[in-house]
From TrEMBL, chains A, B:
GO terms for molecular function: all-trans-octaprenyl-diphosphate synthase activity; metal ion binding. It comes from the Bacteria. Supplies octaprenyl diphosphate, the precursor for the side chain of the isoprenoid quinones ubiquinone and menaquinone. This is Octaprenyl diphosphate synthase. The lineage of its organism: Bacteria, Pseudomonadati, Pseudomonadota, Alphaproteobacteria, Rhodobacterales.
Length: 333, 333
């Protein structure tokens, strides 16, 4: 990649060039997360929304719209829509995963309760839906409705596939497309659609979001086995302990001999883990070199993302989106 | 009231006259609850959908559309939409209430797990959204998006209001409008909107659904204290044990002397219930005659529902809708 680490990071560069629009998105989010009757709603939402995160998804929508020359007001609504859908899924994910921490802070289900996380998630999902209806674009509604269904389907698939050693790379890709890439690709695609861009451009934006989302999730799964927990805010081996079959392990299972297979059956399928198992799992990932194979996959998806937008008009933002694809995988290089 | 108990029940009469449309709705529901990738989704959904229930809400949409002379295909989509939203909220409610039984069968969260209920609910909600987008009516989308937000808001409000003795009748009404009436009124209203009925008719249908939904929920809350559990499938006093402040208790709290108030504070607010408390609670409801006052409120809402549709065209279905309003409160007469 050869990124100059001292330079501005690409999401910061995007954030700077989109500063005015991002401020409008934040204002709209604050307005729409309010509830006249139920103060619990903005409390829970603010806990997540204020925790920061990079606002990557809404930024992608704004960037796509701007890149396609959009001058209307509705990219703001769509960016807020995308962030609400994302926040709603995070609230529900933390209930499903019984997580206690997110972005280095206690989760909402821990601070309040599962009930609040489920219902506030539902509320935000409904609010996202109201926001997109305001754009008046049936095509945008169609794209976001499909993305929402794909996200939920991916999450359910993950429930059943995660602990099943028959889960191969193609099922993994389906899960990742659902839980992560569907919202990335919808975010970029609706930016193009609202700008009434050419179909080629809309498709390019979709492909970019899809590939970027996949690269993003593969990196996330890789960092779970080799990240620096001070940077990632995650502990090494969380996925292993939670018996989540992700790409590094799927690749190792595919190459496992009988004894190794028995190890994966016991630890992932049966969940009977004992002291030292994580170290042994790591040694198997190293033995079969699956961490580096996983890294290669992530880089290939980032390259695919860059290729996709090559046909878009030459523009500062196109350059930043390409840099963003590099940056996503630079964390593991 | 004076209903002839041997006669066909109004929802059965409606079901008979709408039989062809209801069959189409059921077919569409079965098609759309499928998932290519995640078989868990139709399993969980079928458990609820097949359990029956009266399909009251989709029937209201079909009835409203037919009453307004609609001849197109989209009332089927809207009826399925409404049933999916209803099913999604049931799945999430059972997680929130930690319920083990629904319609006399174990709940999905008990048979599978909370995770499946949360995520399959999200999937159905997304599917409902896809279905309504297919109608191409932005007004319908607006109505259903608003209803969804009102439902979630009502549920969150209930979380915080249910155990708070300051909850008065107006807050109770807000909760009931959210958790129950919002979907009834949206169901009837969109039937009129899709038929492009006059604004007066659309408003009348909305008012009917709103009042019917409120009557329905008040009856439900009343039956919790005086129903026959063999008929209702609920145990007497479930709401009391779950510390849910519903109308009969709200009315009793308003009339409580200091000693009675201390009883409600201990049992509802603090949840420190002991043997014999339910009997004492019932004796207080009888002392202040709040069960009969609650019944009067339900009947008044049913009358309001009938009044609302009086201006609609004379039609068999209008008569059945009026009978339905009577029937809803006949359970407590």
């Amino acid at each position: 990649m050869g990124l100059d680490k001292s330079a501005t990071k690409p999401h910061e560069a995007l954030s700077a060039v989109l500063a005015e629009d991002m401020a409008a998105v934040n204002t709209l989010i604050t307005q729409r997360m309010a509830s006249k009757h139920a103060p619990r709603i903005p409390e829970v939402t603010a806990h997540l929304v204020d925790a920061g995160g990079k606002r990557l998804r809404p930024m992608l929508t704004l960037a796509a719209a701007k890149l396609c020359g959009y001058t209307g007001p509705f990219h703001i609504h769509l960016a807020a829509t995308v962030e609400f859908i994302h926040t709603a899924t995070l609230l529900h994910d933390d209930v499903v995963d019984e997580s206690g921490q997110r972005r280095g802070r206690p989760t909402a289900n821990l601070l309040w309760d599962n009930k609040s996380s489920v219902l506030v998630g539902d509320y935000l999902f409904s609010r996202s839906f109201q926001l997109m209806v305001e754009t008046g674009s049936l095509r945008v509604l169609d794209i976001l409705a499909n993305a929402s269904a794909t996200i939920a389907e991916g999450e359910v698939l993950q429930l059943t596939a995660a602990q099943d050693l028959r889960t191969d790379e193609s099922i993994y890709l389906q899960v990742v497309r659902g839980k992560t890439a569907a919202l990335f690709s919808a975010a970029t695609q609706v930016g193009g659609v609202i700008a009434q861009a050419d179909e080629d451009f809309v498709q390019a934006l979709y492909d970019y979001g899809d590939a970027l989302g996949i690269a993003f999730q593969i990196v996330d799964d890789l960092l779970d086995y080799q990240g620096d927990s001070a940077v990632t805010g995650k502990n090494i081996g969380d996925d292993f302990r939670e018996r989540k079959l992700t790409l590094p392990v799927i690749k190792a299972v595919a190459k496992a001999d009988a004894e190794e297979r028995a190890f994966w059956v016991r630890t992932i399928e049966k969940g009977k883990q004992v002291e030292g198992d994580l170290d042994h799992a790591l040694s198997l990932l190293h033995k079969h070199d699956t961490l580096s194979a996983t890294r290669q996959d992530a880089i290939a998806w980032a390259d695919k993302a860059k290729d996709a937008i090559a046909l878009l008009p030459d523009h500062d933002i196109r350059k930043m989106l390409a840099d963003l694809a590099d940056y996503v995988v630079a964390r593991i290089s």
